[in-house]
Design goal:
The complex is a heterodimer of chains A (334) and B (81). Chain A is α/β, with parallel strands linked by helices and 334 residues long. Chain A has helices spanning 19-23, 30-37, 50-65, 89-97, 113-126, 218-240, 257-267, 278-281, 288-298, and strands at 2-11, 16-18, 41-43, 74-78, 103-107, 132-140, 158-168, 173-180, 188-190, 214-216, 249-252, 307-314, 318-325. Chain A has one domain: 3-Layer(aba) Sandwich (Peroxisomal Thiolase, Chain A, domain 1), CATH 3.40.47. In chain A, helix 3 packs across helix 4 (89-97) and helix 6 (218-240) crosses helix 7. In chain B, helix 1 packs antiparallel against helix 2 and helix 1 packs across helix 4 (64-74). Chain B is globular. The chains are: A alpha/beta (334), B mainly alpha (81).
Chain lengths: 334, 81
Amino acid sequence: MYTTISGTGSALPENRVTNRDFERLVDTSDEWIITRTGISERRISSGENTSDLAAQAAANALSNAGVDPLDVDLIIAATVSPDKFTPTVSCQVQKALGLAKATCFDLWAGCTGFIFALMTADSLIRSGLFGRALVIGAEVLSKLVDWTDRGTCVLFGDGAGAVVLSRSESPGLLAHFTGSDGARGHVLCIDGVQLANPWTDGAGPSPSGPGSVIRMDGQEVFKFAVTAMQQSIRRVCELAGIELDDVPYIIPHQANDRIIESVAGRMKIPRSRFYTNLDRRGNTSAASIPIALDEMNRADVLKPRMPLLLVGFGGGLTWGASMVRWMPNSREDS
Amino acid sequence: MVFDQLKAIIVDQLDVAPEDVSPASSFTDDLGADSLDMVELIMAIEERMGVHIAQKEAGNLTTVGDVLAFVEAQKGAGVAK
């Protein structure tokens, strides 16, 4: 028993924010942002929350897959920016789409979340426990950005992507490679709810809220990303038994163009083999890979049985890659 | 020689001409390196010259000469050139 991706979908906020728009907010310039990151514009929610984008992406993926949505028995949403702690984004998607049969949970693994969620759904279906999954990556990072910090606020965007994962007689997901290093977790941080109750030291309980912002040591994260991305690419090729030269496209987490440039140069892979959309999307964390995959699908770039290498890295620290064989039509019809 | 090896790495990483690289050259002011260029340069020097440059020390290396001195000290080079 194997699984295959039988459809893809994505959803973005309507509101486009360019680098010029940021010049009005913080001390920055279009030139600085483009040369440091490669980003020109990104979508920033002016009202859509994470579950809204997630549900739209999921609906688009189900429509693309052409399967009966009511068959979905598993929904996993990878996110670090849920609407609520509970109900989860996955439960909210279930409600929005009326998928009564599903077991739903969210998965927190930073920008690697989609890779970990894909691996989890693959394993759960192959174990026989489930039959059809929605695997979603969805973020409204604009809720977590320090809008006074010019070093970070320009980097991130909002959006969601989703895939339908179905049973298959031949493998559409060939291999996964994953890893984590909590010892270095402090270099990329978004604080949670403050610990404050009548028994803790300090002034007493205070509400959770806008204090949680993305903070990172850019140089350390850059070094980590370049190393982790290379290792993940190599190892997943070994595990899948596929030569990197035979993989037409690598779909990396879209964090920063300089990371992709660095890895392409070091591994001597033509830059064109790395699908890139961060110039228009910014860093959408767990949503970046499924959004990219959907864009490639809609652009008719993906051919039957084509190997695709999905690779992510991010907060945790976490990293990983999945080798996909593009076979949307070999889903089992049930 | 250590300087020649270092110069080759700098030329490669920062995309500058060899004649522009002297011990007095400042990475940011003379060789046009930004903070991410510096991270990549340090990584390349570590890998290709077999040294380790801790994050704290990397911050003090502003000229080519600073890096040269650091690498030579690590390699225990007491050889006269």
